[in-house]
Design goal:
eight-stranded antiparallel beta sheet; T-fold; three-stranded antiparallel beta sheet; 341 residues; alpha+beta
Length: 341
């Protein structure tokens, strides 16, 4: 597979934010004219298993019934999206696309996720690539047999990996090569969390926490009018080291790591595969990114693992309103200037 080379593009801020806004908050409407009420705040916390992980919602508001109604609507919206975007659901739009190589009349959600994925593929020069599914399936089969894929099988699977061969239009989505298949595992969960937060906002709630498997969006403050404080999981918890934590509001955070779905006990082979080489990247143990949306943070964290610390810092620094914190396999830490602990 040909490597993507060249200098990193500096992204036009207006154009970039338009893409992010479309992917992270499509259809969200803020309620206008809401006035603070001098009433005790109610806190509603609910969890539900979805997308193979636990979804956690925290909502602060003056009325418990309204909070619970908003939470119910949020879970319904997220469940709707899982039904469209999950490759693990055989009835989803994504599964239909993978099975046929063609999806007519795609809904706006899947189209926006794919457009953001295409953009991330471009700005990361192929380090983020949603067509990596044939490689992931190859590793899954090999893991079941307790072996590592052969060089020949990796080379063969690489022929089906190229995000530029996904053609997106309002009329249809087409996979240009027979046998290609898409996974949205590195961006779809983030989009679903974004839409969950957007649903809460559409019900008038601005102090919320929406989290799925460590990828999260927070807005406003906690009930005590304190900022949300988010801890970053250490990739090697048995090692000594201070927990990194950040105070955030109206921002998303996502983490990717070699420890999350390892294929081998030494963590050399894991679920993050370099789409350009077909093997797991060797430098980073974890990558945490903060961004305006979870979909963006999720995709950038995945790409950072592939890029390694130097290139990842360059990519994240080129993104408006994004910060990154990376830990190498040797536990050396790297961070952008604005990532505060």
């Amino acid at each position: 597979m040909k490597q993507h080379n060249g200098t990193l593009p500096r992204i036009n801020r207006r154009g970039f934010l338009q893409i992010v806004a479309a992917a992270g908050a499509a259809g969200a409407l803020w309620h206008l004219g809401l006035k603070p009420q001098n009433l005790p705040k109610q806190t509603v916390r609910q969890s539900r298993t979805m997308m193979g992980t636990q979804i956690n919602l925290i909502v602060h508001g003056p009325d418990r019934d309204r909070c619970e109604d908003a939470v119910a609507a949020t879970f319904a919206r997220m469940d709707e999206l899982v039904g469209s975007l999950s490759r693990h659901n055989p009835e989803s739009d994504l599964s239909a696309l993978n099975a046929r190589g063609f999806l007519a009349g795609p809904n706006e959600d899947i189209r926006q996720v794919l457009l953001l994925a295409e953009h991330l593929g471009s700005v990361t020069q192929g380090a983020f690539d949603i067509t990596v599914l044939p490689l992931l399936e190859l590793y899954d089969r090999s893991k079941a047999d307790n072996v590592v894929p052969s060089e020949e099988s990796i080379t063969s699977a690489l022929q089906l990996v190229d995000y530029r061969q996904v053609h997106i239009s309002p009329a249809a989505i087409t996979l240009a090569r027979k046998g290609m298949a898409i996974t949205l595992d590195g961006i779809g969960k983030g989009y679903i969390v974004d839409q969950g937060a957007a649903t809460l906002r559409s019900h008038g709630f601005t102090n919320v926490y929406v989290e799925a498997g460590g990828d999260l969006m927070v807005s406003g403050t906690k009930a005590e009018s304190m900022p949300w404080r988010i801890g970053v999981t250490h990739p090697r918890p048995g090692k000594t080291g201070k927990m990194v934590a950040i105070d955030i509001s109206d921002q998303a955070v996502a983490t990717s790591g070699d420890y999350m779905q390892p294929y081998t006990a030494d963590l050399r082979h894991h679920h993050i595969i370099d789409p350009r080489t077909g093997i797991s990247p060797p430098e980073l143990a974890s990558a945490t990114v903060s961004a305006p949306t979870v979909a963006l943070a999720d995709g950038l964290a995945t790409a950072a693992m592939v890029l390694g610390p130097v290139r990842a810092l360059a990519v994240v620094n080129a993104m408006p309103d994004c910060e990154g914190f990376f830990i190498g396999k040797d536990l050396r830490q790297y961070r952008t200037e604005g990532f505060l602990s």
